Amino acid sequence: MQQLVKPKKKNNNKVVFHIKWGLLKIIPFLILNLEQMKIVFISDTHAKHGLLKTQDLPEADIIIHAGDISTRGYKHEIEDFLYWYSRLDQYKHKIFCAGNHDFFFEADRETAMNLIPENVIYLEDSSVVIEGIKIWGSPVSPYFHNWAFNRERGKDINKYWQNIPNDVDILLTHTPPYNILDKTVYYEYVGCEDLRKGYLKSNPKFMCLAISMKPMGSMVKKVFFFLMPV
After folding, report:
1. What is the DSSP string of 44-78?
2. Distance CA 73, CA 161 (A)
3. Are strands 133-138 and 93-96 parallel, antiparallel or unpaired?
4. Residues 71, 74, 78, 83: is their CA dihedral positive or negative?
5. Strand partners, 95
6. 51 φ, ψ to 5°?
7. Which residues of the chain register pLDDT less than 70?
8. Residue 133: its pLDDT value, please?
9. What DSSP designation does 124 have?
10. 3 state DSSP class of 20
11. Which of 176, 170, 162 lies closest to 205 in space, CA to CA?
C-alpha cells in the first residue's frame, strides 16, 4: 500500500544532505537536511513524549517516529501519543511506525487505525511519497520473547522485507539489519539477516532505525539512530 502526498519535482541528479544530532531531555533526535526538505527523526519515547516541550523540537518539514510510542501498547498510551503528535504544528507531515512495545496496533489493528488523526501517517509495511521522497516503514522485528510484531527469522520474517520497494528513498524500520549497530554488550549480533538482504536489494538512499540496547549492569535502555547513505 502506498500513500501519496502532493509530490513535487524531484532532483534525480544528486542527494544533498546534512545530519545533525541533538538531545531532548532523555530522548535523542536526528535532523536530516535534504536538498528539498528537512526531516526530524525521534524514537522510543515509551509514553514519555509529555517530557518533550513542543518548542524544543527543531522545526522541519517532516517528523518521523521510528516506533515504541508506548510502554506496553495500552490504548490510553496510544491515544495520548497520537493527540500530542497530531498537534506538533511545526511539521507539515507527521509519520510513524509501531515498535515491539506497541501491542495495540497488532492486537486490535482496526481500532488502532481509527484512532489515527487525519494529519498523521502510519506506516505498517507500507509507503508514502512526500514531495518526491518515498518512505517505506515497518514495525516488524525478529522474535524475542513474543513482543509485538515479532516474526521468526527466516521465511516468516523475510516475506516482509521482500515487500520493500526498489525505488524507496528512506527505509524506516524498528529493528536493525544484521551487523549494523546490532552488537550487544555480550558481543552478540542480534540484527536481522534477511533485513540486511532486503535493504541491499532495494538500495535506499537512507536507512533509519531505532535500536534499544541494555548497557552492562544497567536497566536503562539507550536509543540510537542509524541514518546512512547507501
Report:
1. --TT-GGGS-GGGSPP-SEEEE-S--SSS--HHHH
2. 24
3. unpaired
4. negative
5. 64, 121
6. -75, -15
7. 1-26, 211-230
8. 94
9. S
10. strand
11. 170
